[in-house]
Request: fold
Amino acid sequence: LWGLPAPKLKEWDGKGTTPNFPEIVLGRCYTYTKVLRPELSHKDCRKIGKAFMDAFLSKDPCSSTERDYQPLLELTNQTVPCNKTLFWSKSSELAHQYTTVQQEMFTLENTLLGYIADGLNWCGDADSSEINYGSCPKMGKQCNDTVFVFWNTVSQRFAENACGVVQVVLNGSISNTFNKNSTFGRVEIYNLRPEKVPTLQAWVMHDIGDRSVACSSSSINDLKLILSNRNIKFTCHDNYR
Ligand code: N1C
Reply:
């Protein structure tokens, strides 16, 4: 409509959408499916990019739901082999260094959708079809924003699909080695399927020089209890080599 000013996007406290978000999503999708894992070269990156935008554009970023991301999840479905799923919490860097060396292991970021979204931020606006590059709701503070809903949704799927013995890398040099409020503690452990996942193995890693033994800490005991109630066996290794 000629002459009408574009509606002003809502202003939030958090940082805005990552610059060039659509291009990054498309580029990462092609890199993953054509270069890194050509067995997925049949995936349609244009469709995937469109489904990602449709999940949040023209919507209030504080009213996002799992359903918004379902079409994107369907287009990016992928099988992770049994015994190869690796979870992590407050140990992203170490976990990913490990999967870089141990290429047959998969964190969520080693799957297509996790790879595409890793480190990015995004939001739309209820009153405009534009991407909001200026600001987005501050996670946890202003609302459960669309990026938070996204990670909950994909983490849930990642855990539901896991099979065999699964691993988690935990940070033994912080007080809450197992944190009930983390994605791992809140979403992933409750979505493991006991009929497919007999055992969860924790690798509790410490900073160099820190010789505490976190496997015997009370937070690890909480994890053990939750799993035992869910009929999943638990093993724990301090500073797995
Ligand atoms: O909250 P966390 O850790 O326990 O989440 C990690 C856990 C892993 O096992 C992943 O499978 O949940 C999954 N996951 C991601 O893969 C991921 N990539 C990037 C969850 N969150 C992820 N992010 C962002 O990091 C996201 O913004 C979320 O809030 C943080 C969580 O990191 P954490 O607290 O160290």
Notes: The beta strands are 14-15, 86-89, 135-136, 166-171, 199-205, 233-238. The mean pLDDT is 95.
